[in-house]
Every structure is written in structure tokens, then in C-alpha cells.
Write a structure and sequence with these properties.
5 helices, 124 residues, mainly alpha
């Protein structure tokens, strides 16, 4: 019997996603919201991390083995470090399968980030 987790591959409806913070044009962020948003943006502020995040997010199966995304011009230990930082920021999740680790971006993370940067209808 397999202990594999069944994952939903359906995209959430963007209107159903609760973002980390209100859209920037809605109101000023409080300290907690700013801290959460800053962690995400800080993690994506490094070009290597942004490339890794993009590689995972755009991978055809919705998840990528570390072996498929490690060609970003840095050593394997550095790739692992950057992937760890993306996980700590809540941008990636991972699952070990045998000797490989597979990474995925939760669809709700992308939707929430999009909502944060979207103008509200009143501000549009």
C-alpha cells in the first residue's frame, strides 16, 4: 500500500484566495502584514532564487525535481540553500521521494501574491 499524498491539481479561484496582506492600494499594511510580505519579496529578491521559483512554478507537471532545476549557474549546495530560503518564506513546499526532493509552488501562493499587487476596484 502506498503512503503517497494525493494532491489536487486544480487552480484555486483567485477571488477565493485570502492573501497575506491587503492589496497595496486598499490601505496601509500593518506591521504583521508588512513582515509577511517582506519575507516573500526578500526571498524573491535574489536572482538565483527567482529563477528557481520560476522554474518550479512553470514546470509542466506543477512540481519539479531538484535534479530538473539545478542548472542555474551555482553549485548544488547553493541551489539547496536557495530552495531552503524559498521554503522558509512559504513560497515552496517539498516532498522527498527516494533520493530526490520534489518542489512545488502552492497555487494559492501565486494567487495571493497576485492579489497583493492588484489594484482594488475603487483605486483603479
Amino acid at each position: 500500500m502506498s503512503n503517497a499524498e494525493v494532491l489536487s491539481l486544480t487552480e484555486p479561484h483567485i477571488q477565493d484566495v485570502v492573501p497575506c496582506c491587503p492589496p497595496l492600494t486598499e490601505r496601509p499594511m500593518n506591521a504583521e502584514e508588512a513582515e509577511r510580505a517582506a519575507r516573500m519579496f526578500k526571498a524573491l529578491g535574489d536572482p538565483v532564487r527567482l529563477r528557481l521559483f520560476s522554474a518550479v512554478a512553470s514546470h509542466e507537471s506543477g512540481e519539479a525535481c531538484v535534479c530538473d532545476i539545478s542548472d542555474v549557474g551555482v553549485s548544488q549546495p547553493t541551489v539547496s540553500h536557495h530552495l531552503k530560503k524559498l521554503k522558509e518564506a512559504g513560497l515552496l513546499t517539498s516532498e522527498r521521494r527516494g533520493t530526490w526532493v520534489y518542489y512545488r509552488v502552492e497555487p494559492s501562493v501565486l494567487a495571493a501574491m497576485g492579489k497583493l499587487l492588484t489594484t482594488t476596484p475603487a483605486a483603479a
